Every structure is written in C-alpha cells, then in structure tokens.
Amino acid sequence: MRRMPQPIPYQGSKRNIARQILAFFPGGVETLIEPFAGSAAVSVAAAYSQKAKNFYLNDLNKPLMDLLEIIINHPRQIADEYEKLWQAQLGQERTYYDFIRDEFNKTHRPDYFLYLLARCVKASARYNSSGDFNQSPDNRRRGRRPESMRQEILAVSRLLRGKTTIARDNYTEVLNLLSESDLVYLDPPYQGTSQNRDSRYLSGLNSDELINFLDTLNKRQASFILSYDGRTGEKRHGIELPTSLNLYWLEIHAGRSSQSTLLGGKDETYESLYLSPALTRRLEATHDNISKMAYAGKLRRGAPPKQLELGIV
Ligand SMILES: C[S@@+](CC[C@H](N)C(=O)[O-])C[C@H]1O[C@@H](n2cnc3c(N)ncnc32)[C@H](O)[C@@H]1O
Fold first, then answer.
1. Which of 16, 36, 113 to mutate to test the pocket of ligand 1 (most atoms within 8 A of CB)?
2. For the stretch 96-127, what's the b/e string if a residue is b when 16 or more beta carbons lie within 10 angstroms of its beta carbon?
C-alpha cells in the first residue's frame, strides 16, 4: 500500500497502523463512522483501499472538523491559504507563529489551524484551561512545504469528496445514525490521562460514560473496532475494560517506542484493538477465523479481557 496522504499533522494519528486496523474490516461496509475522527487517518486509509462506501467523521474539536471539511470540499482554497501563510512567515518564523496563534484563538480559522499544526512541537495540539491553543512552535522547522502540503490535501479530497459527512458533536450522538451495515471505528483519547481535562484535547472524557456507550453499541448489535490502550514493553497504559463487554482483544505491534530509543532501550510498543461481538460474528461468517487474520496482519494476540487463555500468536 502506498504511503497514506495526511495533510493534517496530528499527534495520535493512526496512520502508521491503519493498514493493520483495516485487516479487521468486514466486507460490505456502507458507512464507516468515526466518533473520534481526529485527522481521520483510518477513514483515509479505508477510502484508499475501498473498504467503505461512505464516511461519517465526527470530532468535538470544531476547528479540526472545519479544517477537514475545507480540505475535502475546497482543497485548492485551503492549499492556497496555507501557501500564503507559509511564505509570509519567512524571515520572521517565531514572531509570525505567535501572531497566527493569537489570531487563531480569536477567529478559529481553518488555515491558521493548519499552519499551527504544521509548525508546532511534535504536531501536538495543546490547549489551556480556557480552551486556547497554547502549543509552542518547533523552531527547527518551517512546516511542510506548500507544494507537498498541496499534494496531500488534493489526495485526501479525491478520496473523501462526495462521500463524507462531517459532524462536531459529542461522540454519543452517532447512535442516532447507526445501521447494521455500518462499521464504527473508535479512537477516544487515551484513558488514564483524560479522566479530567486533558491539555491535548479540547474536552475530557469520562470512562464510565464511554463504557456505557460501548454497552449500548453492543445491545444495538453494532460492529465496532476500538483503539483503547497499549503498552510499552511490559508496562501497560490505560485502564482495563470490563469483561462484560465481551470484546475480542488483539495487540498491534506499533514499533519501537521513541521514548525508549532515546533512553537507549529496546522497548517495543503495542496498541490494543478490541472487536465487538457483532463484528467478530460478521468476520467469522466470511473468514476462516480471526486468529489466522491476526497472524496475516502481523498482529500479536494477547489474552482477551474475558480471560480466555489464547496465548500469543
Ligand atoms: C486519539 S484522537 C483520534 C485520532 C484519530 N484516530 C487520527 O487518526 O487522527 C481522539 C480525538 O477525540 C476527540 N474527542 C475528545 N473528546 C471527545 C468527545 N467527547 N466527543 C467527540 N470527540 C472527542 C479529540 O478532539 C481527538 O481529536
């Protein structure tokens, strides 16, 4: 698979493991619903691989969804606007960044947001308690060059235009549109760090509410894939999900941890993936069995929360 286009630099993007996540898509997905869409890396990959016909992208971060919408529907306009900002910064990169950050906090303009994400430290948005973007610039970089940004923007637009709905609601709202042929991919903010306000996101997330929501999805027989937690070496991050949800748990090998590499260690990172019972049934109806798929997708399978001792593939 060719490298996925990704015009929105977004820390936490699932672009690097999108291919492994797609391995668990059933056939015949009418609409892929992402309640926590972020930069929509999984939808972009699914559109590229023709794994879903339509896309419903929701995120509570309104400026982010405004940016995604303009990228999809008015790609040339946003590419031109980004180029203007990028050129205007030359020779005064630091002061220009601060100026655009102030302007963004007043106006929430999508072009300002794209420029800030392209220039800020580790592409990681940070917000203060008033909801203002307060991340510093990475002074070693000027941000992706305009021509390359234009190519990414046009590629994403080609993939998603005419088949995508954008929403800016709380994730629970997607319950109103679910149907049996849909697939929901959920990538909530990492649990354990976001019980209260998390400076990475505009809002926090309550884990009990999320678990109730997953339970409701199960009662509605919804097919869903959840990214929830992970581990570095033997150290687990995030809180456990209740076994009553009956989810099938897999781990995706996400590579060497950058933190560990910095410290001279060799810790590998693994990201958990949970499949809903309805999805597992749907997959088993068309494939030999999930463990074979896991193997084919280079996945490492751990013991699922329902305490079945499945061992490691
Ligand atoms: C881990 S990121 C998703 C990253 C995404 N999978 C990607 O590839 O870019 C989680 C997203 O959830 C959003 N979010 C946080 N709380 C939310 C809520 N209550 N409802 C909807 N979205 C929310 C955040 O704004 C953030 O963009």
1. 36
2. bbeebbeebbeeebbbbbbbbbbbbeebebbb
